[in-house]
């Protein structure tokens, strides 16, 4: 799976947001409000990957139980799929 659009992640008024850039800005009209983990997941989705690889990468960066992080990753990826951001 991979994000359909390229996003630039930036800090805007002390909040992390992702803004579509390039061709994506013409096809996806919106801004994603992110926390640090969601930003890390979105960055990983710039390349073709799967949930297992995302979970492993998140575990290398953040402390937590693998099962809990896997649940969060799955939930967030499903939300991105529902929004048409991930294919």
Brief description of this entry?
The chain has four helices and three strands; from the N terminus they run E-E-H-E-H-H-H. The chain has helices spanning 24-27, 36-44, 51-61, 66-82, and strands at 6-12, 15-21, 32-34. Helix 3 (51-61) packs across helix 4 (66-82).
Number of helices: 4
Globally, the shape reads globular
Q: Separation of termini?
A: 6 Å
How would you classify the helix and strand content by structural class? alpha+beta
**Nearest-integer average pLDDT:** 94
Radius of gyration: 13 Å
- Quaternary arrangement of the chains shown? single chain
Count the beta strands: 3
Whole-number count of domains: 1
Task: Trace the largest sheet across and list its strands.
Answer: 1-2-3
Strand content: 15-25%
- How helix-rich are the residues, as a percent range? 40-55%
- The low-confidence parts are none
H/E element order: EEHEHHH
* Main beta sheet: 3 strands, antiparallel
Would you write up a description of this structure?
- The structure is a single chain.
- The protein is α+β, with helices and mostly antiparallel strands.
- It has helices at residues 24-27, 36-44, 51-61, 66-82; strands spanning 6-12, 15-21, 32-34.
- A 3-stranded antiparallel β-sheet has the order 1-2-3.
- The longest helix is centred in the last third of the chain and has 17 residues, at 66-82.
- The mean pLDDT is 94.
Topology of helices and strands:
Blueprint lengths: L5 E7 L2 E7 L2 H4 L4 E3 L1 H9 L6 H11 L4 H17 L5
Antiparallel strand pairs: 1-2, 2-3
Helix pairs in contact: 3-4
């Amino acid at each position: 799976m991979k994000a359909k659009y390229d996003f630039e992640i930036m800090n805007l008024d002390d909040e992390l947001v992702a803004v579509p850039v390039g061709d994506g800005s013409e096809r996806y009209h919106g801004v994603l409000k992110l926390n640090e983990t969601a930003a890390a997941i979105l960055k990983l989705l710039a390349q073709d990957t799967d949930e297992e690889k995302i979970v492993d990468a998140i575990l290398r960066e953040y402390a937590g139980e693998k099962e809990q992080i896997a649940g969060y990753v799955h939930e967030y990826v499903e939300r991105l799929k529902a929004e048409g951001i991930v294919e």
